[in-house]
Structure formats: structure tokens, C-alpha cells
Amino acid sequence: MHMSQKKSLAVLSGTLLTAAMLSACGSNNNNGAASASPSTTEPSASASASASAPASSAAASPSASAESERYEKPVTLKLLIDNQTSTEGIKAITDEIEKRYNIKTEFDLRPGGGEGDNLVKTKLATGEMDDLNFYNAGSLFKSLQPEKYFLDLTDEPFMDNVVDSFKPTVSVNGRIYAGPSGSSQAGAWLYNQKVYAELGLSVPKTWDELKANNEKIKAAGKTAVIGSYKDSWTSQLILLADQFNVQATAPTFADDFTAGTAKFATTPAALRSFEKLAEMKPYLNKDYLSTTYDQALKMLVDGTGVQYPMLTFALSNIFATYPDKIDDIGVFAQPGDSADSNGLTVWMPAAISIYKDGKNVEAAKKWLAFFDTPEAMALMAAKAKPEGPYVIKGAALPEDAYGGVKDMLPYFDSNNNAPALEFLSPLKGPNLPQITVEAGSGMKSPEDSAKAYDKDVEKQAKQLGLAGW
Amino acid sequence: MTKASRRFYSYAFLLPAGIVYFIFFLLPTLMSFFFSMTRWDLVDWEFIGFDNYATFFSESSLNIGFRNTLIYAVVTCALKVVFGLLLGVALTSSLRVKSYLRSVVFFPTLLSTIAVGIAFSSMMHPTQGLINRSLSAVGIAGPDWLGDTGIALLSVALVDVWKGVGMATVIFIAGIMSIPEEYYEALQIDGGTSFSKFRYITIPLTAPAMNSVIILAFIGGLRSFDLVWAMTKGGPGFSTDLIASIIYKQYQGGFYGLATAGNVILFIGVSLLAFPLFKFLNKREVDL
Question: Which of chain A's residues have a Cβ under 8 Å away from the Cβ of B37?
């Protein structure tokens, strides 16, 4: 039985390998006892209040003082940034920073999504964070415990340049820990204006009008609503972009949701978002479960698909691949049940924060102080077109902005916009993409999906150790 | 040398390997048992007892996960045994091109699983994929391989078999080649057909090879993750979620304690299934 002995060794070592899979690098349990209390992030309404000291004029003149602030020896700052963001616009600004201050910027690329989150958290935990950290604003940023790792920027003069609605998304307990990285964007409906004109349709102001449009498009033999659920994150858009309508009927939903007193399944306005998602199923393309984001963009541009609920960064992707078609694409806000409240759900730009224990904190402050000026935004706009209005005061949209972005301006001018839920609450259940696929494809009813999501959120709240859950 | 020092002397040689093994395998394993009972964000931890296990077991997608994992392991294991054995017999016969065919069969094993997954998921696209286009050329309307929740898991399992059958075949070839020629000659003298050769000599005497294939394929199936992740990411919805992909999603969500608890459960589950299977199969083995 010599042979089987050898095999039992092989099987044993196989099992041990399985055991090794369980391991995670756990070298940082030293301060566990000291700080076992997880951060309870209060949605900081006071943030904007404390920072709204009257700014004399947003357009400070950095060039005048720049000469004296120039470093004699070059200083190099490292910027940790995900590899999915186009760095061209940022590079236009960092080149100028190098010219003015002799501060070089080294781009340190990391993966995006969940893997990127883990890398950032590991870098923070091991004290190896780069000088500057480019990261999502909102709930993800707050989950990094910014008060522990990043420089408090509340009293920096350049904060006066930043639009107030951005500040709460990067604030903890009323203190601000990051500046914006560029333009905002919206979660909205991209539509093919050419086909709209051909079929004689107009932009819908209510959900019923939207459905009426869908019927007409369907009758014309085209896909009314593009579904790309193979990339499951895209299935969340109808739900997430409905936040303006949710807060219009249930103004305190975000806070109550964070506190655990309001649920999707029991709040009619929020449950409505799941219902809207399910109601779109008859209008989707046939192979929506196998269609990817890239294929969806192609359908939209070709006009075989006419409407696509998506974030407006898709405009940049469309411009990169189909530059001659970009003017066909328009944007409208996801309509609510009444025409009286029709508004846009806005996503804030990523945040750039300064690592507190970095070697070049002063240089990093200078870097960010210049980055968050209208002048810098203009440099950026010359290289990379914005996907929505800037959140820097006085930074105007360039003349050649995408038509879709210009479509967004009325919602800002009339103040009919609201930040997406993920910027108001630290809670966003990690299984939402799968749950919205189930809801959107009819595998589960809207009620069951809402319940499943409430459970997912509850799990996250418990894992975050939030109070009251 | 005294008896005691001689014993120490021999252990000293084991020490370097032992230390490496302890630090990189045993210690993390033991630590994972501890961290599975904490709320853990890689920096701070808080002891919460068995809450993570309770949460993990109350996960709604977990039932699907357990069922899918078992289906996946059984289907891939069975198909690999069947096809591996048939290919092994074919490729040890007197085919002229057998060494070429052996490399062809083994080739998929060398490919990166992720690359295979991405390639197949584009080939399995319902309207633009190579498979359904070929099918429609001969008048068959192919299904939505990865979008139909009823067959998505089986589609992934088939790709796993395509990729893994080469390894099974090689093990079977080795097993078949080690059968002495005399047995076949004896059967020939007794007037046996080629089917009885296969039935009464090849199958019983390749039992050790078959056991290796079953164990490897079954454990591989239970732990499988990369192919499913590359092809469907557990979707549509949760319909192709395996235990491992559920754990990974929890890890992605930043629930490190919870994910670790899931891994401990997977570890125990795999051990509970694999050891009895291994014992049972070993008993069946026939000595040459």
C-alpha cells in the first residue's frame, strides 16, 4: 500500500493548503484593545456651517505668491490613484504644480473596486500610505477612519473655494478631511437624441411619461431601455438615481436609514425605487443578462438602444470610443411620479486627502491648495472634459463641454438636485448589485428584493459596529 | 552520542522547514480561527464570539451557495473521471497521432483560469458569441449559456471540465501504463473481448489513479472560485454563487472577520467531506 500512503500525504498537504487559504495577514492587532470602538460617523450637517466663512473671492491669486513658495530642490509627492480613472486631466494640473512649486507628482496606480479598497486600507494600517490619496468621497471615504489618518483641512483657506455640498461627504464630526478632485457627475438617463427626434418624443417629466415613451420606442422596433446586467453594478442605477425622488417625498430617509429606523421595504418612497427597477423589465433588450457596459454604450450610440440609466461618466467613455457621436447623447433626470418635483441625483467627485504622517505634508498642502482652484479646473478641462459641473466655486464649464453635461445645468441652476444616498449615509450593502439584478430581471419581487437589501445593510451596519443596530 | 541528544540532533534538521511551515501555514491558520470570532477591519478588532458564524449561516444566499458548491463539485468531478478515463484509454491505444493528441488534451490545463473564463464568457454570449452563432448556422437556437439562471452553473462546470480533463487524463494514462501487459494477454488467451479487457482489467487496476482524480477534482470543485468569478461573478443575481465566492464578496465588502469565519466553515466542510471520501476510496483499492 505504498502508493496510497503517498497519496494520503498528497491529500494531507492539499488540505493544509486549504488551511493556508484561511490565513490573512494579521500583523496589526497590537492596538486592538486600545481602540475597539469603531468610528460612528455622524452625517455632519454642521460641516458646511463651520466652513462657510465668507470668502472674499473664490479666485485667489496663487501666481503672485507662488514665486516665493517655490521649493529650491525638487520635492516629489506620491499620489495613490486607481487605474480606472483617466489621469490626463490631473496630469495637466500636476505639470503646472511642478512648474510653479517645483513639486513633482508620482502616480502610484492601484486597482479599483473592492481590491483597491483593501489595498488602501492595508496601506493605512501598515503606515505606508502615499502623501496624497485619491479615493471615493462619501461612505467609502468615511469607512477609512479619516480622522485617524488624514490631515484636517477644515481651516485651510482653499476650502473656501469648495462648494458646500461637497464638504459633508468628506467630513467626520464636522471636520473636513479632503478636497474634491474635479467635476461632479449625475446618475441619470442617457438617451439618443436622434432617435428621440425621429420618433417625435420629448424628455419625460414623470414616470408615466417615461413609460409612454418606452412603449413608442418598443413599437418602433428598438430597445427602449438598455440593460447591461452582465456587469452587475450597472443594474443599480435606476435604484440609486432615484434618490432625488426618495428625498422629495421622505426628506429624512437618509438619516433614518443610517440610524436603522427606516428601511427600504417599509418606506413607500424607497420601495418605489425597487418597483421602478422591476417595471422596466418589459422594455429591456432581450439579452440584458449577458450584455456588458461596453456593449450597452455601443447600443446607445448606434441607436438600437435608446435610453440607458447610467452615471454620466459614461459620456467620457462614449467620447473616447465614438467621438463623432457624442452630440447625439443627451441626459435627463430619472423622473418621479409627479412633474412638480423633477430633479437630478448627483455623485460627488472623488476626494483627495493628505496623509497625516507623510514626509511632505507642507508640500502636499500646497499641492492641494492649487489643485482646488478654478484655475486648476480650467487646466483640467482643457485635457479632460467634465462629466458634470465642477464643485469648485467659480470654475465654469468649458464651451466645448458635452451636450449631455450642459443638459444637467438647469437642474443645478434651479437647485433641483440631491446627492446620492451613498454620500449621505455610510451604509451601502455590498450585495446591492446582485439584488438589483434579481429585482430588475423579475427573479424576485420588488418587496422581496427590498427586504433582502435591508438584511444586507443590517449585516454591514453590524460589521461596522454602528450604534443602534 | 546519548540517545536524547541523538533525538535532538535529528530534529534540528527539521527545524528550518518547521519554522517556515509554522510561521506561514500553522500560525495564520490558528490566527484565522481567532479572527473569525472578531469584528475586524485589518487594524482594530473586537471580540464578538460566534456572531460571525450566526451571521454567515443566516445569509440568504448561503443555501444557494452550499447547493451550488455541491452540484459543481459532483458534476465536474464525475465528468472529469468519465472523460479522463475514456481519453486515457484512447490515448494509450495504438493510435498513430497519440502523442500529439496527448498534448492537445493537456494544453488547456496550462492556460490561466481567468483567461479561459473571459474567453469562454465572450464565446457564450447568447447573440454575438461564437458558440451560439455556430449553432444558429446549423439551425439550432442556442440558450443563453450564462444568463439563464437554470443552466449558468452547468455552463461554468463544463468549462471547468474542458480545462481540467487534461490533468485527469494524464493521471489515468500513468495508471493504465502501469498495468502489466501479461494480464491483457491472459485475458486474450481466455478469449476476452476488448470490452471485457476494459471492464475487468483496466477499470479495477486503475482504481488508484481514479481515486486520485476523484479526490483532486472533488476538493478542487468544492474550493473552486476563480473560474466562476471570471465568468459570472456569482450572477445573474446569486444564481451561480459558490461558498468561496460568497466569502470573497464579504471580504470585498470589508467584513474581514465574517469572511474569515466563512473560510473556517469552508475548511471544516471540505475536511468533513474529503476525509471520509478518501478513506472509503482507499478501501476499494486493489494491489497490483
Answer: none
Closest listed residue to residue A404, CA positions, set A316, A284, A321, A295: A316
**How far is residue A163's CA from residue A394's CA, in Å, rounded to a whole number?**
10
* Cα–Cα distance for residue pair B239/A439, rounded to 1 Å: 13
Domains and CATH numbers, chain A: 58-183+349-397 (3.40.190.10), 185-347+421-464 (3.40.190.10)
Mean pLDDT of chain A: 85
CB contact under 8 A, B263 and A21: yes
The dihedral formed by the CA atoms of B73, B75, B78 and B82, expressed in degrees to the nearest 10:
-140
ipTM of the complex: 0.78
Model pLDDT for residues A40-74, shown as the tens digit of each residue? 333 333 333 333 333 333 344 444 444 567 898 99
- Whether the CB of A125 is below 8 Å from some CB of chain B: the reply is yes
Interface of A with B in 283-312 (CB under 8 A): 286-290
CB pairs under 8 A between A and B: 180
Q: What is the mean pLDDT of residues A131-151?
A: 91
Nearest CA in chain B to A20: B25
B84-138 pLDDT, tens per residue? 999 999 999 888 888 899 999 999 999 999 999 999 999 999 888 899 999 999 9
B166-178 pLDDT, tens digit per residue, is 999 999 999 999 9
Q: Which residues of A touch B282 (CB under 8 A)?
A: 4, 7-8
Q: Over 60: is that where the pLDDT of A422 sits?
A: yes
**Structural domains of chain B sorted by starting position, each given as residue range(s) with its CATH number in brackets:** 67-284 (1.10.3720.10)
Residues of chain A positioned with their CB less than 8 A from the CB of B252: 113-115, 117-118, 430
Q: How far apart are CA A22 and CA A26, in angstroms?
A: 11
Angle at A39 between CA A33 and CA A44, to 5 degrees: 160
